[in-house]
Design a protein that fits this description.
alpha/beta, 6-stranded mixed β-sheet, 18 strands, single chain, 18 helices, 4-stranded antiparallel β-sheet
Length: 395
């Protein structure tokens, strides 16, 4: 029977949100599992399906989710052939963590901690100390990195325990605050081309009896944002990175394990009013809101003091059929940001958190013109964004 127009909307129940597999199968669990197998003290083997190796290499391809590899066997024949090896030969993905966005995921990878502990719980979040919105990818406005994220990285702890540790990435990333708080430890080796990175990663992997090497490629994500994952430009990048992965796999030294993963997947959003809800043009959504953080598919909403309950009510009424809309307490209780939330992190989370369920985004055309113009988007807990590969090659 059709629902009468006068009835209240049927809201998405919060317990229907697929919470990331923190503690057993998320990005935050990868490096702790690898270094535990290398004998570094204090780390759990959190992903039980993985087998220890003396030499571990992680190749993180920005923006290449599990569903995208599955859907493109012709463009990515090598990566597609490795799907059965994922997650220790179970053929299953792991989860990125919430929100499924680069700054959050890279911090989870490098620290081995969920967002609620490392404290980068979104693309932009409010700094409770200053009241300003902090962009955690671009690190603006400037914030002391070690205050924002005080925990040591897994790389630092592994290096101190005698594991030969290195990061191989674009030279421009060496001095960024995000690198310092999430990926520092051991040697940073800047190389411009993808081929150089693969070659150097293999060399560094062979340089120690126990080694941990991380390498990274960004342009799959870049082309997806600009042109969409249904574009020739994106498919060209997928073909290129498939070749890079094969190049690295063919150079692995003995006693090695290569893990190919990603920080998030991506979804293309149509350019129409139903799919793109413009916060800057919507008086109802703006009412009582002091600041809008996060990104289109994972929003942190900061209310004017005293208006928190009203903002939650309105956002649920307007968006609750298409978004999981939670109060801060509800999102924390549901475990969206991990099983524990550090006190310093709590105020960074929105008074209201909205995570997309449907193929829809909340843009901000005036305040976020660049982000609002993107074709490909990510951030939420849907499988296309949240599931990432953990492909494996061993020697």
């Amino acid at each position: 029977m059709a629902q009468p127009a006068w009835q209240d909307p049927v809201l998405l129940p919060l317990d229907s949100a697929p919470v990331p597999e923190y503690g057993s199968g998320s990005l935050a669990d990868l490096l702790p599992t690898l270094v535990a197998g290398q004998g570094v003290p204090g780390f759990p083997a959190a992903i039980p399906e993985l087998t220890p190796a003396d030499r571990n290499c992680v190749f993180l391809i920005d923006g290449l989710g599990w569903e995208q590899i599955k859907a493109h066997p012709d463009e990515a024949p090598f990566l597609h052939s490795l799907l059965p090896t994922s997650r220790g030969g179970t053929g299953r993905p792991v989860t990125a963590g919430f929100p499924a966005t680069t700054a959050t995921s890279l911090a989870s990878v490098g620290t081995g901690l969920p967002p609620g502990e490392h404290g980068l719980p979104g693309y932009t979040v409010r700094d409770p100390e200053t009241g300003a919105l902090m962009n955690q990818l671009r690190w603006k406005p400037w914030t002391p990195p070690k205050v924002w994220q005080p925990y040591p990285t897994v790389f630092q702890l592994a290096d101190a325990a005698g594991v030969r540790t290195a990061q191989v990435s674009a030279p421009a990333f060496e001095q960024t605050p995000l690198t310092k708080v999430a990926l520092s430890g051991g040697s940073f080796l800047g190389r411009l081309t993808g081929e150089e990175r693969m070659d150097v990663a293999a060399e560094r992997l062979a340089a120690g009896d126990r080694s941990l090497v991380y390498t990274y490629y960004s342009e799959v994500d870049g082309k997806g944002h600009r042109f969409g994952i249904d574009s020739d430009a994106w498919r060209g990048q997928l073909m290129y990175v498939d070749g890079l992965a094969r190049r690295l796999a063919e150079q692995l030294p003995p006693r090695s394990a290569l893990y190919i993963t990603a920080d998030h997947g991506m979804i293309d959003i149509p350019f129409d009013e139903q799919s793109r809800i413009d916060f800057d043009e919507d008086w109802e959504l703006r009412a009582g809101v002091a600041q809008l953080g996060g990104e289109g598919r994972a929003r942190h909403v900061y209310a004017v003091p005293g208006a928190e309950a009203d903002v939650l009510t309105v956002w649920r009424e307007v968006l609750g059929e298409q978004f999981w809309v939670a109060s801060r307490d509800e999102a924390v209780e549901a475990g969206w940001f991990g099983p524990r939330i550090d006190e310093r992190v709590l105020g960074r989370i929105g008074d209201v958190v909205a995570a997309a369920h449907d193929d829809v985004v909340i843009t901000a055309s005036v305040n976020e013109p660049h982000e609002s113009a993107m074709v490909g988007m990510h951030g939420s807990m849907t499988p296309v964004e949240q599931l990432v590969p953990l492909l494996e090659v061993r020697t």
